[in-house]
Specification:
There is one protein chain. It is built from 23 helices and no strands. The protein starts with a helix and ends with a helix. Among the domains are: 129-187; 193-409, MFS general substrate transporter like domains (Growth Hormone, Chain: A), CATH 1.20.1250.20. The longest helix is centred in the N-terminal third of the chain and has 29 residues, at 42-70. The chain is mainly alpha-helical and 454 residues long. This is Sugar transporter. Residues 1-395 form the Major facilitator superfamily (MFS) profile domain. Pfam families: Sugar_tr. GO terms for molecular function: transmembrane transporter activity. Keywords: Glycoprotein, Membrane, Sugar transport, Transmembrane, Transmembrane helix, Transport.
Length: 454
């Protein structure tokens, strides 16, 4: 249901907004948990899983797009990676509750996890200013910007309260998004054709890159080993308790996801992916060798494959497990970002489905667990080469700069940034300072045209 939910979310978030789509996702989620909690038979449990799976994708896709649009470039990767971090924490909590509570009670508790965030969003979170501007809602975009930046620290050289002019200076990245969104609105206030957006280099190039990136991610064995942790550990022939080891796998993933948020803020994406794939290849190579020796009875060090698996999970969390998901929204331009993210997210989950379902087939085809681990090592090496030669660097870059990269603009970055700042400062100042109900879309368009010499 996740691929289907992702595609539906892409359409809904373009017309209803990012936050409204998240709120609506709570409806099938609550219905699904009620179905599970009251299930008189297995059929109703499956109905509940279908509804919750659909709701999961319906709420996740717009959340990633929203974070992409409101976050600063230096914080974007860390904030998006907080999603998988919280998902890992949620899994640990769910497993812990399942160990001590009846599963029906756990289902009722999960409804609370669904409803409370929706209420908090309704009360405290403003809609994406990028989406608001793309719909011509200039006044709402200005209010959203003021809310998002009202807690910014005031400049060190003054004791005066943060003025609107100071706010303009602090909104450089938001200004870029506004100018970008304005360019995607024609003189009638309607968005350009979504189809034309996918036919441009800024549309199809990111999609091709993400397809190969996710294909490498899935067949490097990351999700196969996570979903088949117990089976995988049993297959390598270790004497370590498989269920105990699987718990350590989950805890390792959660711990490393916390570190990953810091890494994404400090280091370039390509470097993290190359370090990650190198570690994964080494761990799976050594683990596969010891698995073969255990099978042949030439070693008693049966704990080595388990340690190799844990280090493999650590290595994957540095880059290859998380970074493809952070790129599903930031690589695309505003006019198609919602739909493009949903398509790429759906594509990623389809690849995950086929990779996970093929585990047994691959094991039988290659002749054993040791060969599967070596295959994972080889694919990881391919991932290193992919990052080295094809993966674009997005760390610290604004969404406008990423779009310019795929568009192949030849203008020097410094010159282009200077021109954008000249045009966008007045636009954002207009948005922030305009009296309520007086900001008009045509006025902003005219200002943009005058600045750009149109």
């Amino acid at each position: 249901m996740v691929p289907i939910g992702s595609l539906v979310a892409g359409i809904m978030m373009e017309f209803l907004g990012r936050l409204n789509t998240i709120k609506l996702a709570a409806l099938p989620c609550v219905a699904g948990w009620i179905s599970i909690a009251l299930a008189p038979s297995f059929t109703w449990i499956m109905v509940g899983r279908v509804l919750t799976g659909f709701a999961c994708a319906l709420g996740t896709s717009p959340a990633i797009v929203y974070i992409t649009e409101v976050a600063r470039p230096d914080m974007r990767g860390s904030l998006i990676s907080s999603g998988p971090t919280l998902a890992s924490l949620g899994m640990v909590i769910a497993y812990a509750k399942g160990a001590f509570m009846n599963w029906r009670l756990v289902s009722w508790i999960c409804i609370i996890y669904t409803v409370v965030p929706v209420l908090l969003i309704q009360l405290f979170v403003p809609e994406s200013p990028v989406w608001l501007v793309s719909k011509g809602r200039i006044e709402d975009a200005a209010r959203s910007l003021r809310f998002l930046y009202k807690k910014y620290p005031q400049p060190e050289h003054t004791d005066q309260p943060l003025s609107e002019m100071h706010l303009n200076a602090l909104l450089k990245e938001r200004e870029t998004k506004i100018a970008e969104a304005q360019r995607n609105v024609n003189r009638h206030g309607e968005q350009q054709s979504k189809l034309r957006g996918f036919l441009k280099p800024t549309g199809y190039k990111p999609m091709i890159i993400l397809f190969w990136f996710f294909l490498i991610q899935q067949f490097s064995g990351i999700y196969i080993t996570l979903f088949f942790a117990v089976t995988f550990i049993q297959d390598v022939g270790t004497e370590v308790n498989a269920f105990t080891a699987s718990i350590f796998v989950g805890l390792t993933r959660f711990t490393m996801s916390l570190l990953n948020a810091w890494l994404l803020k400090r280091f370039p994406r390509r470097q993290l992916v190359m370090v990650s794939t190198t570690g994964m290849a080494a761990c799976m190579g050594v683990s596969g060798l010891f698995t073969l020796w255990i099978k042949e009875g030439t070693t008693t060090m049966t704990w080595v494959p388990v340690v190799g698996l844990l280090l493999y999970v650590c290595s994957s969390m540095i880059g290859l497990l998380t970074i493809p998901w952070t790129m599903t929204a930031e690589l695309f331009p505003t006019d198609i970002r919602g739909i493009a993210h949903s398509i790429s997210y759906s594509m990623a989950n389809l690849l995950m489905f086929f990779a996970v379902q093929s585990y047994r087939t691959i094991t039988d085809l290659l002749g054993g667990a040791y060969a599967v681990q070596w295959m994972f090592a080889v694919v990881s090496i391919i991932g290193f080469l992919f990052a080295l030669f094809f993966l674009p660097e997005t760390h610290g870059k604004s969404l406008a700069e990423i779009e310019a990269f795929f568009a192949g603009k030849s203008q020097p970055p410094a010159q282009r940034a200077s021109a954008e700042r000249t045009a966008k400062t007045t636009v954002t100042e207009h948005l922030i300072r305009s009296p309520s109900r007086e900001a008009k879309l045509k006025e902003v368009e005219l200002m943009l045209k005058n600045k750009n010499g149109a």
